[in-house]
Write a structure and sequence with these properties.
Layout lengths: L1 H21 L23 H25 L6 H7 L8 H32 L1
Length: 124
């Protein structure tokens, strides 16, 4: 539980600092177009990135659990257990905890990477 709180706090803190420092450019919603230069810096929409990464990681998690059930001799669940606090192998509750954590990791990456990319692209 502590790890989840740590990652959530870290992501929100980084996002807040970048949002306060850069304004709307951190979320990828503002695109300033210079009349002299029609090309605006690239932006990553953080909300769309969050949904895409979260769904990708959730689907990947489900595929890996299915693979482990079909091919137990090549099971990867030990890696999932070490990456996802509170997960054990394999109960319905544990599966749902792992699925929720995979989804949350996608949002963590989006809330940290997206604003950092957008701030660097706007400055650069």
């Amino acid at each position: 539980m502590f790890a989840i709180l740590y990652f959530a706090t870290a992501a929100l803190l980084v996002f807040a600092v970048l949002r306060l420092g850069c304004g709307p450019c951190a979320t990828g919603q503002v695109s300033e177009v210079d009349p002299e230069n029609v090309m605006a810096p690239p932006r990553i929409p953080v909300v769309k990135l969050g949904w895409a990464l979260s769904i990708f990681l959730a689907v990947t998690y489900m595929l890996c659990v299915g693979f482990d059930l079909i091919f137990p001799q090549y099971a990867m669940y030990r890696a999932w257990i070490s990456l996802m606090p509170g997960m054990t192998w394999l109960t319905a509750t544990s599966f749902l905890i792992g699925l929720a954590e995979a989804f949350a990791y996608g949002w963590f990456v989006a809330l940290v990477f997206g604003p950092i990319f957008n701030v660097i692209a706007a400055r650069g």
